[in-house]
Amino acid sequence: MKHNLPFLIKLSLLLCLSVVLMSGCKKDESPSQGADKSTDEKTLLIGLIPERNIFEQMEQYEPLVDYISRKTGTKIKLKVLTRYGNIVDNFVALNLDGAFFGSFTFALAHAKLGVEPLARPESLDGVSTYYGLIFVRKDSGIRSAADMKGKTFAFVDRATTAGYLLPLAYFKDNGIRDYKAFLKEAYFTGTHEDAVYDVLNKKADIGAAKNTVYYEMAKTNGRIEEELTVLTRSPDVPQNSLAVRSDLDGTIKKMLKQTLLGMHNDEDGRMVLKKFGAKRFIVTTDEDYQSVHDYLKKIDMYFTSSEYGNGP
To answer: Does residue 151 register a pLDDT over 90?
Structure first.
């Protein structure tokens, strides 16, 4: 037994050391598990309506959501939606938490889903609204609604104020009840940008689009000013606002809203706003969209599912 004593002592020490090491491993695992949990926190998915091509959309909005993420500590991922008309279906199917809605798409999503507006941008000129334009080529000979008979019209999408509701109201104001019979052809381009290009390149005789896209394009494409002319415009409606689902966590809603409304007071925020093309964000409420509802009543149109197909 005496000869085995050193061995037993060594064995005991080895066992004790093993226990200590195992305990240490368990303690080390806890922080890493906590870290994994934090990285698995929910990412907010925010949709973008397809005003322009996907690359331009992402270039404009990514710096903004990156700023919001840094300030709120909330991960945000952007998703450019393929069409205006099925935005409600996409909002549900993609489990979106919010979206930068146009005026009509907000009215639609608010009626169907109860989304809540938070804030919208005010331009560098201090404007927080937009309006729709109807335009033609200067050499088309079209100067009135009567001149459009037998011509081709490029709409944007059924769920756009500028790209569809304006033309419908324009036709109604001019006694044209059935534009499909009046025109040779009417089709949807999918984006405001493409509606402008289609008229510019003579694919369509007449087009409709929102003024912000039209005039932004004109800054870099001299042909728009030289070859196109605007026939009429719509009343003002709210600029694209961020609206979120009604059951989104209240703390997150508050952080998103406060971050947007306060970013013009922060140097980093002002730089992001400048890239975005805005002076600041302002509070937006349901009441701001009354002009859209008035428009819908004027043209006897409301939120029936049959109004939102792909074709005219």
So the answer is: yes
Residue 238's region, left for phi above 0, alpha for psi from -120 to 50, else beta, is beta
Q: Which amino acid is at 138?
A: K
CATH no. for 44-128+238-304: 3.40.190.10
| Structure confidence at residue 104 (pLDDT) | 87
β 76-80/44-48 pair status: parallel
Cα–Cα distances (Å) from 93 to 45, 110, 223, in that order, read 12, 16, 40
Q: Are 187 and 158 in contact (CB under 8 A)?
A: no
- CATH code for residues 132-234: 3.40.190.10
* Residue with more model confidence, 33 or 82: 82
Mean of all residue pLDDT scores within the chain = 84
Q: Are 167 and 208 in contact (CB under 8 A)?
A: yes
Model-level pTM? 0.72
CA–CA distance, 13 with 17 (Å, rounded to integer): 6
Residue 218's identity, in one-letter code, is A
pLDDT in tens, 211-228: 999 999 999 999 999 999
